[in-house]
Amino acid sequence: MSHPELTIDLTAEELLRLRFTALEAQNFSLLFASYHPRAPFLEQFSSLNAYLEFAAQSLSGMRFCDALVGVSRVTADGVEQICAMRFELGGDEQIMYELALLKPTDSGWRYHSAQKLTAEDYQGEFAALDFVHFDQQTTKVRF
After folding, report:
1. What is the mean pLDDT of residues 31-46?
2. Which pLDDT belongs to residue 58?
3. For residues 47 and 56, is the Cβ–Cβ distance under 8 A?
4. Backbone angles phi, psi at 49, to 5 degrees
5. How far apart are CA 62 and CA 136, in angstroms?
6. Tell me, what's the pLDDT at 104?
7. Which residues pair with 102 in a beta bridge?
8. Quick one: which of 30, 32, 71, 121 has the most CB atoms within 10 Å?
9. How far apart are CA 105 and CA 119, in angstroms?
10. DSSP state at residue 76
């Protein structure tokens, strides 16, 4: 399935914002298409149908509230972008902070992976969230 929204001229930040828009609209097909070909996520969901089945069971009850996009830095791998997403799942409001890694491809920027922080890991204001908060984590899990 083709996604005309995934243009080659999108910046890394625009791709990230497009992903949030897709999540809000529950456009899981677009989310799947926005992954980098070597994303760890694709090891778990090797096909669009497998992901759509998972999304129907596990994500359809999620209500997207809002997202924030913060500072970015260029690395040897691509662009790392700090962001946050607030959502409701099972009646509970949650916030998830990410250090997203976006990598260039021949088709444009694609989402590779992210290091996550929960509200327990970081309790400050989003504007104060910086790379040091992710860098200082003893276990850095990217998925």
Report:
1. 95
2. 87
3. no
4. -60, -40
5. 30
6. 97
7. 79, 111
8. 32
9. 32
10. S
How many other CB atoms sit within 10 Å of the CB of residue 23? 18
Task: For residue 87, give both structure tokens.
Answer: 């959502």
| C-alpha span between 63 and 76 (Å, rounded) | 35
How far from 113 is each of 123, 128, 137, 140, CA to CA, in Å? Answer: 23, 22, 16, 12
User: Cα-flanking dihedrals φ and ψ of residue 50, to 5°?
Assistant: -60, -40
Q: Is 99 helix (H, G, I), strand (E, B) or coil?
A: strand
Q: What is the pLDDT of residue 1?
A: 62
Report which of 97, 101, 96 is spatially closest to residue 73, judged by C-alpha positions. Answer: 101
- Residue range 42-54, pLDDT digits in tens: 999 989 999 999 9
Residue 137, burial from CB neighbour count under 10 angstroms (0-12, 13-18, 19+): middle
Exposure letters 74-110 (e unless 16+ CB within 10 A, then b): eeeebbbbbbbbbbeeeeeeebbbbbbbbbeeeebbb
Which of 1, 116, 110 shows the shortest CA–CA distance to 52?
A: 1
Which residues have a Cβ under 8 Å from the Cβ of 57 and sit 6 or more positions away?
A: none
